[in-house]
Amino acid sequence: EDQVTQSPEALRLQEGESSSLNCSYTVSGLRGLFWYRQDPGKGPEFLFTLYSAGEEKEKERLKATLTKKESFLHITAPKPEDSATYLCAAELYGQNFVFGPGTRLSVLP
Amino acid sequence: NAGVTQTPKFRVLKTGQSMTLLCAQDMNHEYMYWYRQDPGMGLRLIHYSVGEGTTAKGEVPDGYNVSRLKKQNFLLGLESAAPSQTSVYFCASSYLPGSGANVLTFGAGSRLTVL
Which of B45, B101, B109 sits opposite A96 (nearest CB)? Predict the structure, then answer.
């Protein structure tokens, strides 16, 4: 069964305290690994797509990396405005997406 | 560009009532999707459409119907609502997969409560 899990479920950081979110996937055929950000009461917004192991992408304080079994979202020196739920999703060949349950990040000033 | 617009944003139904959620996109996207989001679970695909006049079942289609009569609109119907259908519903759209990243653009969501 195709499955995507995320850890931790929730994470509280002090402003400036760097950390990483984990996305582990067990799928039959991975076409791409996506990261989305979701603010309360809103729909998910696209952050990154990764296609091959070893690939990295950066955007401001966020960096996403990919291995054959998992992806990490590294957050460097976070600010309160980075508080959100971060979703990862595996796009499968010939099928649609399998979403993880998300990590709820809170960055305290 | 409005992107993806969902109506209504909130709705309360009684068990057995019917309703329709409307999704409209102005990006000329071919693909459209309906997901539901429940606490502690990932987004789950209900139905999707690969173009005007076509629909297909997703992971959790039971109790729902859809129609795509126009390219820009995708309707989700509940014929006889049940408390298990209490959820937040998200519509999304994308370009044809296979042409680069299949980035989903989501609406703001529709919160449905079935009493």
Answer: B45
- Asked whether the beta carbons of residue A34 and residue B58 sit closer than 8 angstroms, the reply is no
Residue in A4, A32, A49 closest to B42 by CB: A4
- Residues from chain A that touch B108, judged by Cβ atoms under 8 A, are 41-43
Coil, strand or helix: which one is B84?
A: helix
| Beta-strand pair A103-108/A56-59 | unpaired
pLDDT digits (tens, 9 = 90+) for B30-85: 999 999 999 988 899 999 999 999 999 999 999 999 999 999 999 999 999 999 99
How far, CA to CA in Å, does B76 sit from each of A76, B42, B67, B73, B87? 40, 19, 7, 10, 13
Determine contact, residues A93/A29, Cβ cutoff 8 Å.
Answer: yes
Structure-token pair, residue B109 = 């969501």
Quote the tokens at residue B52.
């005007």
Question: Cβ distance B79 to A9 under 8 Å?
Answer: no
CA distances from B23 to A3, A21, B18, B50, B51 (A): 28, 32, 17, 15, 14
Tell me how crowded residue B4 is: count the other CB atoms within 10 A of its CB. Answer: 23
One DSSP character per residue, A36-52 reads EEE-TTS--EEEEEE-S
pLDDT score for A94: 72
